[in-house]
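Write out the bound-state structure for flavin-adenine dinucleotide.
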Amino acid sequence: MTQDFDIVIVGAGPAGLAAAHAAAEGGRIAVIDDNPLAGGQIWRGGPAQWKDPRAQALWQALEKADNVSFLPGTRVLMQTRPGELLVQDAQQAHTIRYHRLILATGARELLLPFPGWTLPGVTGAGGLQALAKGGYPLQGKRVVVAGSGPLLLAVAATLKERGATIAAIVEQAGLPALAGFAAGLALTPSKALQALRLGATLRGIPYYADSYVSAACGEERLGAVLVQRKGASIGIACDYLACGYGLLPNTELARALGCAIEEGAVKTDPWQHTSAANILCAGEGTGVGGVDLALVEGRIAGLAASGRASEAQVHFGERDKWRGFAARLARVFAPREELRKLAQPDTIVCRCEDVCDSELREHPSWRSAKLHTRCGMGPCQGRICGNATDFLYGWRPDAVRTPISPARAGSIITLEPHKET
Ligand SMILES: Cc1cc2nc3c(=O)[nH]c(=O)nc-3n(C[C@H](O)[C@H](O)[C@H](O)COP(=O)(O)OP(=O)(O)OC[C@H]3O[C@@H](n4cnc5c(N)ncnc54)[C@H](O)[C@@H]3O)c2cc1C
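---
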């Protein structure tokens, strides 16, 4: 089966929904997302759970638009020929043709290896938040939230709301940098208000700045964490550790489509066009900056893709404001040097294939490590260890292999090779 659309949007998070809304006059539109419900990361849980009025307004408008189709539970696997994507849902694989493609594939957490990080009970910060939003029971559980960035506060607030006891929030950034960041929030009053609200929700919870988790301890599962703080090591008993060192753009699909990447993010022009013909990118794939930046980039991409470039230009000023916020985020919450030394020789770095730090350090590159140790060749296909090895050893992942995520054999077996004309 092949479906034809004028504009196809991959990702139904804030950027994708804003793009679909802005492009709604641009012909037949499809929004594809591999989750069963729209909303992406921040608006996880689907329309019934959304509290942000911007999410509700976008969804209501899109539901009324009869030229917009939402394809949930559908993953884009690869490009079969220019202007055509192979997608897979729970039942089948099929192809989708487009004139313009908007990538709004978001970001993922940077997870760094340390002793004990593979114990049951240790998750990513956003990972545990996503589980909690999906109904995972945390009532009465003691959780340490650690890593870096404002996401830690949002995660702690969600977990507290779901009945967890937050034993501590452990932030690796130093106090002077955090104070500077807080003062800079005056430039973005909505973020300042959000920070005040989170501060009120989390009042009384120990907040350790300039600190990081050096080990997760336990026999069969997590029982405590060791935190490095002011030159000393302190133990905190907990049932869960939710630990993430910020977010990094998801670029696999963009790279597979031949889009240029700059400093780990998809490179775009002022109208969100990538370097590949007819492909635009919006939201955290172009750099991590939060929901407001994702929304305005989505709006610009949607307008540009539907031929309304001058209307798109009206939003450039707002985008600049949020890009300034994104730049401050990146500066303040950049992972510190000590984190590069947390993994011990026997610490697993690639958890899909059980490859330890000592087996990897002897290799000069990602490719060499892959060929000799199978690092990055398991089910996650380097999505977790690729970013970790970049941080730890300075390795850049090489070309993306398609399909970009594990696919059913039946989905790809009937593909005819595309012949260049
Ligand atoms: C785990 C996590 C938790 C977060 N929690 C918060 C929070 O609580 N508060 C906050 O302010 N910010 C949070 N953020 C940051 C938040 O992601 C952004 O601010 C905002 O959601 C970015 O919007 P986006 O549209 O760019 O991407 P996203 O919201 O990430 O949406 C991208 C969508 O694209 C889909 N997708 C990706 N690749 C494919 C493919 N090949 N085929 C089909 N679909 C695909 C994804 O499943 C996802 O639904 C979180 C981020 C992460 C990674």
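---
The chain has a mean pLDDT of 95.
The first helix runs from residue 14 to 22.
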